[in-house]
Amino acid sequence: MNGLIIINNEQGLSSGKIQKKIQRLKEEFSILKVDIDVVKNDGTLSFIEDGNIKINIKNNDFIIYLDKDKYLARLLFKAGYHLFVSADFIELCDDKMLTHIALSNHDIPMPKTIAGPLIFDSKRIKDISFLDKIEKELSYPLIIKGMFGSLGQNMRYVTNKEELISRFLEMSDQPIMFQQYISSSFGRSVRVMVVDQKIIGAFERYNPHDYRSNYSIDATSKPFLLDEKFTSLTNKIIDLLKIEYAGIDFLFGENEEPILCEINSNAFFEEFEKITQVNAAKAFATMVVDKIKKRKLNKEESVIN
Description:
The protein has helices at 16-31, 70-78, 87-94, 96-103, 130-138, 161-171, 228-241, 270-276, 280-304, and strands at 2-8, 35-41, 46-49, 52-55, 62-65, 83-84, 113-115, 142-146, 155-158, 176-180, 188-195, 198-206, 220-223, 245-252, 258-264. The protein is α+β, with helices and mostly antiparallel strands. The chain folds into three domains: 2-85, Rossmann fold (3-Layer(aba) Sandwich), CATH 3.40.50; 92-108 and 184-265, D-amino Acid Aminotransferase, Chain A, domain 1 (2-Layer Sandwich); 113-181, ATP-grasp fold, A domain (Dna Ligase, domain 1). The chain has a five-stranded antiparallel beta sheet, sandwiched between helices.
């Protein structure tokens, strides 16, 4: 059996976290007798020619997709490649507003969230009166987030109207959302790791100097024992989204209850393995191999019948 790992061309192997994730995956797949190659997504791995999808990679049993390019993911999926994780799930998680929409109307606690208006030319913005409504709905402090982004880098903490206007204009060249600030979770969050629709462990992040739990070098982590509320809510999200692999991030409510923050479809697991001593790479590799073997068996049985 052989597999392919696709990574972002710009980030590439220069990222220590990407390197570590690939190393761990290769180690665990090697134990399972699976060969793994790695390629960068430079935009030419797949394209449409004469109305048909063309693939510029050698045939593999599966692809581990560590990029967030939804177009390549969909091209590969439509061409018949088995991706971990799916193109739909990658897009759902990468766009934070889509995540909240997908889980709305299911009694999933989450911060009050308002999608920012679509701006076609941020240099020609004239009407910002809608910010009065944002101010009224959310009050201060509030959070402005880019729909896309990770590691707490694409979000702003806003305490007054002047900052609201300034931060909005600063971020208006991208899709954004406005969110209620959960003060009871200042500098704290929990990441729950999920593999093959099962919880494999969790850890808590804490940053005493910033509202973002994972943002600075002062942030620390420790194992987190999930209580019934965390476990029940996580399993509900898993069932709704049929999660093969993800890191689900929760904030703490006033009574230490879980509040959904976001879901990462390509969560790193170096920190998780170090803190919890749970072998996430092995769990992931085992899931992939089992699913591919089952898929091949089903195809063989279909041909026979």
